[in-house]
Design a protein that fits this description.
Strand content: under 5%
Helix content: 55-70%
Number of helices: 5
Distance between the termini: 17 Å
Number of strands: 0
Structural class: mainly alpha
Radius of gyration: 15 Å
Largest sheet: none
Length: 116
């Protein structure tokens, strides 16, 4: 998956919490979101418009939630597991699940995006 095309396609699904997302889709989108957030944080120190960049950075960071839920679906887990992030240590568990390969075949969240 090419970075720019993959990022734009995933960004179009910012509000889709159903279905599955392959590892490449999730990680390219994650990388792009981190880059945009870092740029917004750097620009947030500019007087007058800095607050605007701060708000945009936070809102942009929230777009990763739908991709993270679809990635969990791809591994056969409920999107509600994303709440583990609130525990602090849960981020490690989520990272392991996000790194895992897709669950083979169809699951309750839809067909395998890899087609296997």
């Amino acid at each position: 998956m090419e970075f720019v095309n993959g990022y734009i396609e995933t960004l179009k699904k910012w509000n889709v919490f159903t279905g599955r997302a392959r590892r490449a889709e999730f990680w390219w989108f994650y990388l792009g979101t981190v880059i945009v957030s870092v740029v917004c944080n750097i620009l947030s120190v500019i007087p007058v418009i800095g607050v605007l960049f701060s708000i945009v950075g936070v809102l942009w960071s929230l777009t990763i939630i739908s991709a993270a839920v679809r990635r969990l679906h791809d591994t056969g887990k409920s999107g509600w597991w994303l709440l583990l992030e609130l525990t602090g240590i849960g981020g490690i568990v989520l990272l392991i699940w996000w790194i895992q390969d897709s669950a083979p075949g169809d699951n309750q969240y839809g067909p395998n995006p890899k087609g296997i």
